[in-house]
NAD(P)H-binding protein
Amino acid sequence: MNTRSTPALQPEGATIPATSPAILITGATGTIGTELTRILSEKGVSFRVMVRSARDAQKFDTLAGAEVVTGDFNDTATIAQALAGIDRAFLLTNSSEQAESQQLNFVTEAQRAGVEHIVKLSQFAADLASPVRFLRYHAVVEQAIQLSGMAFTFLRPNLFMQGLLGFRASIADQGKFFAAVGDARVSAIDIRDIAAVAAAALTGSGHAGKIYTLTGPEALTHPEMADKLATALGRSVTFIDVPPAAMRDALIQFDFPIWQADGLIEDYAHYSRNEASVVTTDVQDATGSAPRDFSAFAHDYAPGFLIPSVDH
C-alpha cells in the first residue's frame, strides 16, 4: 500500500501533482471506480480511496499512488476523516434506497472539510421532476452541491454498455437477452470513457461548473446491439422485447432488491420512449478523445458473454 502525507490544498484549476493525495475517490471498488483509480495511477497522480473494509483495502495494496482509508457513507465521522486535507472528491455510491441520504451526508461533510471541487457521478437526464427515481435522487444531490458553494462537475452518463454483462448468462446459455425497451434507440456509453472524463475533471482545469452528458458515438436499438454482440462473439445473439412486468419478475429472480428492480423498470420505460437517444460530444470535449463505440466494447468484453454468471 502506498501512503502519502496530505499536503496543502491546490488552487482551483491546477493539475494535482503526483506527490499530493488531495483527491478522494469514493466507489473505488466498483467498475467505474476501479477504472478511474487505474487511470490516475498510470498518470502518476496520488489519490485517497474510501473503502468500507480492510478486505476492500487489499485491492489497492499494489496500486501506485493509492492511500486507503476505511469509511462508511452512513457514518459521518468516518466521512469527515476520509475528507481531511482533500481538495477534490469523486462522489459515487451504490445504487440503493439509501443513496440520496448517503450522498447528501457526503456533501455536507465535504463542505465542512473545505473541499473545493466535487465531481459527482450522476445520470443522464437527472431532473427533480422525473418519473424515474434514480434521476430524481441524483438531481436532489446535484442541487445540494450547487447550493453548497463548492465547485462541481456533474457527469451524467447514459446506459452503461457494461450493463449488458448482466445478461451474460442468458446470452451464453440461450444466445438471447431480454428487456422492456422495444426498438427505442439508446446512446449507451462505455464505463471506461466515463472514468476517463472523471479523471480529467479531477486532475485538470476547465471542468468546474460543467455538466457533462456522456454518451457513446451512436444511438442503437437493442436488436442492433445484439447484432454487434453476435459479430464479436461469432455466434447468434437475439434480443427479445418483453413486457415491463416480466422484466421486473426476472430482476427479482436474480436477487435485485425490489426498490432497485422498480427503479430499473422506470429507467427502461424512459429508454423505451426514445428519451435517451441523443448523442453528445461531451466525452471528446472533456478528454480530447472520442468515446468507444459499441463494436469496440463488444470485442473487448466478448469473453465475458461466453461464460454464464457464476451466481446464477
Observations:
- Residues 1-19 have pLDDT under 50 and may be disordered.
- The chain has twelve helices and nine strands.
